[in-house]
Input
Amino acid sequence: MSAGKTIFKRIIDKEIPAKIVHEDDLCLAFHDVNPQAPTHVLIIPKREIASLADVTSGDQALLGHLLLTAHSLAKQLELADGYRVVINCGRNGGQTVDHLHLHLLGGRSLGWPPG
Ligand code: 5GP
Output
C-alpha cells in the first residue's frame, strides 16, 4: 500500500523505477526525471525527513554522509570542471517533494544568482 508516501519514498521502496547511481544503508542517489543540467542527480536519505527545516542535531552524521556522497558522485560522474549542490527548502525555496534531497548539478556552466 503506497497511500500517503512521497514519490521519493516510493523510489526507495522500489515501487517505481529510477536510474539509481548509488545506494547504501543511509541514502539513495538517482538521476532527476526532469534534469536541469547535463548531470542532475538527487541524493536522498532513506529515512523520511520532510525538509532541511526538520533536521535536528541528531542528524549531523546523516547530513555529513549526504554531502560526502555528493562529493563521491561528483568524482564518479566526472564533474571535474565543477558542480553545484542545492537543497530547496519549503515553498519559497522551491521545494516540491516533501522528502529531504540534495540536487547535484553539473556538466555546464551554472548561472548565479538562482531565480
Ligand atoms: P525540489 O523542487 O523539491 O527541490 O526537487 C524535486 C525534484 O524531484 C525535481 O527536480 C523533480 O524533477 C524531481 N522528481 C519529481 N518526481 C520525480 C520522479 O518520479 N523521479 C525522479 N527521478 N525525479 C523526480
Remarks:
- The chain is about 20% helix and 20% strand.
- The mean pLDDT is 96.
